[in-house]
Amino acid sequence: MIEVEAKAKIDDFNETRDKIKNLGAKLTKIEHQEDLYFNSPTVDFAKTDEALRIRETSTDTEHNLFITYKGPKIDKKSKTREEIEMEIEDKDKCRRIFKHLGFIEAREVIKDREIFKYKNYELSLDHVKGLGPYMEIEILVKDGTDYNDAQNGLFDLFNKLGINDGFERTSYLELLENKNTKD
Prior knowledge:
Blueprint: E1 2-9, H1 13-23, E2 26-39, H2 45-48, E3 51-58, E4 63-70, E5 81-87, H3 91-100, E6 104-118, E7 121-128, E8 132-141, H4 148-160, E9 167-168, H5 172-182
Antiparallel strand pairs: 1-5, 1-8, 1-9, 2-3, 2-6, 3-4, 4-5, 6-7, 7-8
């Protein structure tokens, strides 16, 4: 699958949440996410624009673990990229396997996320530890599909919500890394 995604820095969760609800989107879940990112022993993922992470998600009723690989971005406008994800049973065992293979722990990204569904789009209000409020909109399309319509739909949706600037193509990991080099 190809993940077509865009995100923007926002000022106010409450105002944006109200606009999302007025659009007709439905809150599907609220979750806490802890992402542990790794770098390759042979390739610098920061240079190749790839990502490998273990994601731990928790809600009031469930707890899940995933390994996710994200390929390089394939356009200049959004964060459209290949995404491969699978559920795992044990974070610590996976972490140890990665370390034995030479992967290096890069950084942890922690966020609280409110997820809304609108048509085929997923809208997320993200409070990222160390960064503040962001909003992401994403849709998954089949690999080989023309993703331009999906991408245009993302930005139309942002426009309907009154968000016309603050767009960010870099990942939360990169934003945190960049912030640390400036501090």
